[in-house]
Amino acid sequence: MTQVFVSEPLESGQPQQRWVLMLSYDGSAFHGWQKQPHGLYTIQQVVEAALSKVADEPIQVTVAGRTDAGVHATAQVLHFDTHAIRPAMAWMRGTNTHMDKNIRVIQAQRVDAAFHARFDAYGRHYRYLLESSTVRSPQLRGRAGWTHYALDMTKMQQAAALLVGEHDFSSFRSSDCQAKSPVKTLYDISLSGNAEWMAFDLHGSAFVHNMVRNIVGALVYVGAGKLSVADFEQLIAARSRQYAPPTFMPDGLYFTGVDYPPHWQVITPPLPRWLWPDLPRLVCI
Fold first, then answer.
1. What are phi and psi of 109, to 5 degrees?
2. What pLDDT digit, counting tens, does each position of 77-135 carry?
3. CB under 8 Å to 134, separation ≥6 — which residues?
4. Known catalytic residues?
5. pLDDT tens for residues 239-279?
6. What SS3 state is found at 202?
């Protein structure tokens, strides 16, 4: 059962309030986060429509990190401004009532008007789940990525370690990426589990478009012996998608949290137990 976090609204005479919501969603049914032309079904579209009904006024949201089609989230963060006076529980339950069942508000809190869900974030977390098997488990379709290759996790971890720090991630950036710069800082990347069932955990300042999926795809090539660790290092240095493996499937990718300075008092919840948060302690690599 999803844990619910509630913060009561603050006393204020200001005509407008800023609220933060935490979202959990299954991205399988959506064309990504961002609103799209031609009526494509997106998470932002659904969330804004539901909030507008609760507020009885048009609501626009700002999100910490946009996710692609098929990508999930356990702790996405957004903020919005409203003149409507509602308690935290109304923003949670009311919004959930008017929303697609594949999206749920799990936390609501009022914050200072200066808080910004995107620009105040100094870290973002992702987890990618991967199954390696001869035949893909049908129960995991849409929930975990899959490869038929037998994987060497030791070599994959050696290659992954080369990504830690500040780098130009152009080799892992999609051609339609809108980020101003491909230079980002990856604080940490780790693999856990075993060669048949593993998790990739990435923690970075920010991520360029398709960066996590492209990193996972390249590491799978390393694990399968299609790239050596030295090849992977050259791929980073090449700063070009021309030499990189194809973008990996979105199925196993989860946006799992955001880091904010403590004074904002915006804290994302830990990984839910169903996402195997104890996996690193279960099996030694």
1. -150, 145
2. 999 999 999 999 999 999 999 999 999 999 999 999 999 999 999 999 999 999 999 99
3. 148
4. 68
5. 988 889 999 999 999 999 999 999 999 999 999 988 886 65
6. strand
The widest CA-to-CA distance across the chain, in whole angstroms, is 63
Tokens of 194: 């075993």
